[in-house]
Amino acid sequence: MLTELPLFPLGSVLLPYGRMPLQIFEPRYLDLVKDSLRDGIEFGVVWIRRGAEVAQRGSAAPHLGDYGSTAKIVDWDQLSNGLLGVTIEGVQRFDLASIETRANGLIVGQVALREPPPSARMLEVWQPVLEVLQGLEAHPHVRSLNLPVDYNQAWQVAYTLIQLLPFDEALKYELLGIDELDELMQEVDMMLSQVSGEA
After folding, report:
1. Which pTM was predicted?
2. So where are the chain's domains?
3. Which residues pair with 160 in a beta bridge?
4. Cα–Cα distance, 192 to 16 (Å, whole number)
5. Distance (Å, rounded) from C-alpha 90 to C-alpha 129?
């Protein structure tokens, strides 16, 4: 079953449970944020494979990923530069079936929402992944996101850590598409090992 969803294409990947600060200045996205705040509705965040986040006259439409995450606004404020700042949180993965561009430039997608992954407790073998996440939470930028992490929920730990780590966005996109928890944890653990080996 397909659902219509307004889309916010980004050069960054948003994962479920992940939080991301945004500056909003384009009219089409100001309207999107206003509608989301007023009605409490979610919108879709899709990774831009190629193209620009900011629309430019005569430029081609960005080439979007095949899947993404729905997002909700968890905080907002006017920034010192006068722009609207919002913090979004990933909620649920979806597959993108088709898109159309409205007159105001807003991209709307027909999406198929994926079933949320089943609840899974953290296992002892995944402890190194949890320890890295707990270490990152001492960083001022991470503290400012006010992440409500349940350390007992394995999917939440994995997704939150992937969101925070400075991995290439193409890699984060691939990880977002993984449906098996064991596979996701193995990939994250392997990447952490590579990072520690390069340090």
Report:
1. 0.90
2. 3-113, 124-198
3. none
4. 20
5. 20
